Lipoprotein (Micromonospora tulbaghiae), 120 residues
Amino acid sequence: MEKRYAVAALALATLLAGCTSDASHDEQTEYLRTMAQRGAELHAVEKSRPSGSPGDAEECSDSYENIYGGLNGHDAPHVGNYDEKVALVKEGRRLFMESCMSGTPSSAQEASREPRRQNS
């Protein structure tokens, strides 16, 4: 009976360890691309509305805050520490804003950082 609990505990520990691992460089870049795409999509939505104002910086900023609401309201992948998380979210916001104002997804490739070393 105790062996079964040990196996269950080991499986749970493995699952939790996988959930807290840092996002790869590719996952971070994909997040940035997604934010740029969402900004461009918002521009298109605003453009299609009769009272919309596509490309308005204040409108884009307000929309970003309403949708993502700062560090806790986003879907950014997990990164190593708070400073890295802040930098990733800020970069995502910048790409969202540029894309929202221009109507074209900004390139996340320009903004991508050097891959971080994974702790092994």
